[in-house]
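Page 42, continued from yesterday. The earlier attempt failed because a stray header line got pasted into the input along with the sequence. Redoing it now with the clean sequence only.
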Amino acid sequence: MNQKLIDNLEFVHSRLKWLSKDRKIVLPHHKTFDLVDELMDKVSESIDIAKK
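This time it went through. Structure tokens are written below.
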């Protein structure tokens, strides 16, 4: 599997922990929105890699 795709998936996995019920801290709204934007970018990039 492509290393960039693996890196993206690991990034998404780690950041989803920040949004899960088991998180240790509560993120402010603006940070949550920024995090979701980052995750969407990584997923889009991963989709492009998978299509190639």
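Notes: The chain is about 75% helix and 0% strand.
Reminder to self: strip header lines before submitting.
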